[in-house]
Amino acid sequence: MQQTLDDVVTEVASIPEGWTATDVSRRAGINRSTLHRISNGAVEPTLTTLRELAIVHGMDMTVQLRPLSDPDAATAATLLLSATAESTDDLPTGVLSWMDRLERIAAGVKSDSDQQVTVATLQVLSAAGRASDLRHRAGAAYLRGRSDALRLASAGDAADGQWAVSGGAAPAFSDTTGLPGILWVSDVAATVAALSDTHRSTRDPARAEVIVAPGDECLFRDLSEHDGVCVVAPVRQVVDVCGLGAAAERTALDVARSWWE
């Protein structure tokens, strides 16, 4: 059974019925205070500690790597590079974690003083794009067919709910060939149904001409309108394209460089 790391920590740091924290900590070879901090999220346990706790619960662990596609990374980059400041009080923990990671990337940039801000910005965009790669997004649909903004907008309207375009359908990249159009929606199934007469699905995300992906509240909060089509924020357009492979990333960063230089 696959579980997130947070779920694993919660499960193995629990106290089995009839046991005490002392029983669990002694068998796992850790202090009671350490067990308490792990269960409260105050400390991040090592893999060795997690495995010892799992053994206490009669389980074992395997570690599996998978392609990264975290929507919180794109949200964090959009917020960090947005022209308008936004309070972080109500942001999800995942977004805050990614803001910290991206700020560390920016802080580590070594460049001429007049270029440092631009170089740091481009590195943040690149890192966020790669971390939020839509070719591996859970719940996304990959289609072949028309990918222009008007066709995707028509599908978004037909499916009801919120929607916005990005990728090759966004204004900044509409003249770029080979980029899939991205349609962010609140209901992927309904949108795919609205496209079913003109589009067919593909199992290979790399061959997709249209990506229909589930959007969240943060994404739909900062939209603009271009010729009657809802479009994600400019920073989000760049991040989305950066996640579509090396060639797409170079194109996206060239566009971003023209904005900040």
Outline: globular
What is the terminal separation in angstroms?
49 Å
Share of residues in strands: 5-15%
SSE topology string: HHHHHHHEHEEHEEHEEHH
The description of the largest β-sheet is: 5 strands, mixed
Helix percentage: 40-55%
Q: Which structural class is indicated by helix and strand composition?
A: alpha+beta
Strands, count: 7
- Flag low-confidence runs: none
Give the strand line-up of the largest sheet: 2-3-5-1-4
When the domains are counted, the total is 3
Number of H- or I-type helical stretches: 12
Calculate the mean pLDDT score and round it: 92
User: Radius of gyration over alpha carbons?
Assistant: 22 Å
Structural write-up:
One of its GO terms (molecular function) is DNA binding. Residues 18-64 form the HTH cro/C1-type domain. InterPro entries: Cro/C1-type_HTH, Lambda_DNA-bd_dom_sf. It comes from Corynebacterium variabile. This is Helix-turn-helix domain. This protein is of the alpha+beta class and 261 residues long. It folds into 3 domains: 5-56, 434 Repressor (Amino-terminal Domain), CATH 1.10.260; 71-131, no CATH class; 137-245, no CATH class. 47% of the residues lie in helices and 10% in strands. It is built from 12 helices and 7 strands. It has helices spanning 5-12, 21-28, 32-39, 47-56, 71-80, 93-107, 116-131, 149-158, 188-195, 217-221, 234-242, 246-260; strands spanning 141-144, 163-167, 181-185, 200-201, 210-214, 224-226, 229-231. The strands form 2 sheets. Strands 2-3-5-1-4 form a 5-stranded mixed sheet, with helices on both faces. A two-stranded antiparallel sheet has the order 6-7. Strand 6 (224-226) and strand 7 (229-231) form a beta hairpin. Helix 7 (116-131) packs across helix 11 (234-242) and helix 8 packs across helix 9 (188-195). The longest helix is centred in the middle third of the chain and has 16 residues, at 116-131. It is globular, with a radius of gyration of 22 Å. The termini are far apart. The mean pLDDT is 92.
